[in-house]
Write the C-alpha cells for this entry.
Amino acid sequence: MGSASQRAAVCVEVLRLLNEERIRQGVSLNALAVRAGLSQSQVSRLGSATASNPTLDSLLRLAEALGINAGGLLVTALANVQRDKAPRRDRRRPAVTRR
C-alpha cells in the first residue's frame, strides 16, 4: 500500500465491507460483539466507520466472527480503493460544433 491516505481509505473500506456483510447475514451489532469478543461500543464505532484507527486484532476478530477470510477481505478492500481512485475516461460524446 502507498500513502497514509491510501492506507486510511483501505481501512475505511474494510470496515464498510465488514458492516455490509454483517447486515447481509442479519447479525446485530450486539451479536457480532459477542461472537468477536469485543465490546458493543467498539463494534458500533467500527460499524459506523468512525473508529479512527482500529487495531488489526479487532478487524481480524470481526472477520472471523462473520466467517470472512481476512486476506481476501483486505485484497477486496484494496482493489475497491484502487478502482475508485483510478482516473476515469470521459465517456461523454465530444461536442459537435456547427458553423
About this structure: The chain has one domain: 4-85. Confidence is low (pLDDT under 50) at residues 93-99. Residues 93 and 99 are 18 Å apart (CA to CA).
